[in-house]
Amino acid sequence: MATYKVTVATGDMVEAGTNNSISITLVGSYGESCQTTVPFLFQPGKEKNLSVRCGQDLGPIVLIRLHKWRLFLEDAWFCKDVRVTAPNGTLYRFPCYQWLEGVTTVEVREGSGKKLVDDKLQILKEHRRWELAVAQQEAYRWKNFAQGWPRCLSVDSIFELDSNIQFSRIRATNFTGFLIFQGASHFLSGFLLRRTSWNSLDEMRTIFSRTQGRDIGGCLA
Length: 221
Known about the structure:
CATH superfamily of the largest domain: PLAT/LH2 domain
CATH architecture of the largest domain: Sandwich
Strand content: 25-35%
Order of helices and strands: EEEEEEEEHEEHH
Oligomer: single chain
Largest sheet: 4 strands, antiparallel
């Protein structure tokens, strides 16, 4: 009997936690574990600890599988990383940093930064081939917008994209707030709604130097 200590970390961003069920499978060079359920109530910025018991030593842990399925309502989960401590004390780290949505299984490689030629195990070769040939092609589909134009993503809205591809909602909110602040600053300084031409470059410099001063002051405050 071999016992592995596992720590599952949830990201600290808003709505990163989930009430859906999460389980994990450890994949080693000698075999893989049974699917083991992680304790419920995943909260943002928190970690869950569990033990995964196997009938034999799995050898070096090369992959983990994270399984997510909904109980009643869909509740996406952002996994930060997973750490596995083997019976001999070896620590394996699996950086995830992605959203899991719906009923899904995600495979995460051990984070040692290996190259293609370093993949000796068939399961690692298959995983890399699947990432390139299936996952990437499904995520990035291209179409011709118009004759002579560059190709673009084959979606009608950004909401059709996977959450891991969409621009961060937090960053989008920050940019929106910044644009509102800039718009208000330009309006107060006389830049917006101006109906006449600039009298000189010095006048333009005066307007923008005032705006920049407000931005700097706001940052310092």
